[in-house]
Amino acid sequence: MIQLAITSIIGLIGGLIALRFKVPAGAMVGSMLIVAIFNVITGKAYMPQDVKVITQMAAGAFIGAGIRYKDVMDLRKMIKPAILMVASMITLDTFMGYIMYNITGIDLVTSLFACAPGGIVDMSIISGDLGADSSKVALLQLVRLMSVMTLFPVMMKFISSHISDSKGINDSLEKNDEMENKELCSDMSKSEKKIVQVGNGKKDRAINLTLTLGIAAVFGLAGYKLGVPAGAMTFAMVAVAALNVIFERGYMPLNLRRLTQVFAGVLIGERMTYGDIIALKSVILPAFILLIGIIAVNLLIGFFISRASGLDLITSLLASTPGGVSDMAIIAKDLGGDAPKVAILQLARYVCVIAIFPVLIKLLCT
């Protein structure tokens, strides 16, 4: 219990410092880095994995509370970018695995699984069944996840600031920055703003928040128990979105979103151990190849989806970033992206990678 409290406090401090220095997705990145450092030095970081389910529920509630009727109508446009993204990602990541195999001497199965844009645990478990070196897969997947969460938010913000056709994105980022310096009511849905004007703001916001969290918890738990990929987040998101679309009662305050980001970062950071740092010596070259490949693949797919489907560039880049479903959706709003669309495309990526990649690797290696 003491370790949990210490880890939480350290994560909060890291998130607050990063936010203070305006680091992109600072609440998540700051908590992740400082907890990782703390765990490497002391080995004392601890966060129960049950918190991951709660974090996913909160992330789903936040995304769902931002979905309106218009967004539901726009979902029909997501089929094309989802197909384009999954097809191009599997093709390019398979090619990257072959490059790693030929340059580093790591066996082909291990190289392909190391480059698979799936989850650390999922890819590590599946890879062992197909004869890969699970420890190398887990280590390279960890490098991928840490690199994505540390470098990509900065890269996305740089791209949004320096590409001429992203004026709308820049406007969105400026609005988000302004919102962070205002009262929490500036982060409310239109229905909440009307309520505040009537004079019953605090009471109605409390009711809406209770409804939102309650529905997210019930449906998120159902999704988790059913074993659906990212089920806690997905079910919570859909249920809260329905609440907001039908009744305009979905509400998640800004501070709760920040707290969700902090705990998402802590969950990633506490996985990093001293043993991982030592083991990095044996995978420096493949890790470097993986990092360069991830950046190249992400940029290629993001620009391709944006041009082919009409989605804005930042949303396309975040959707094709091989991070966690909830992680990318959580930071989307901070970077000017469309969180619901990012969540849908990330979920499509995750499900298809888990379903298709192992079968593809087995075919390629036999």
Automatic annotation (TrEMBL):
Pfam families listed in its UniProt record: AbrB
Domain of life where this protein originates: Bacteria
Transmembrane segments: 21-41, 53-69, 81-101, 138-159, 206-224, 230-247, 283-305, 347-365
InterPro entries xrefs: AbrB_dup, AbrB_fam
Keywords: Membrane, Transmembrane, Transmembrane helix
Protein name: Membrane protein
Record organism: Clostridium omnivorum
Lineage: Bacteria, Bacillati, Bacillota, Clostridia, Eubacteriales
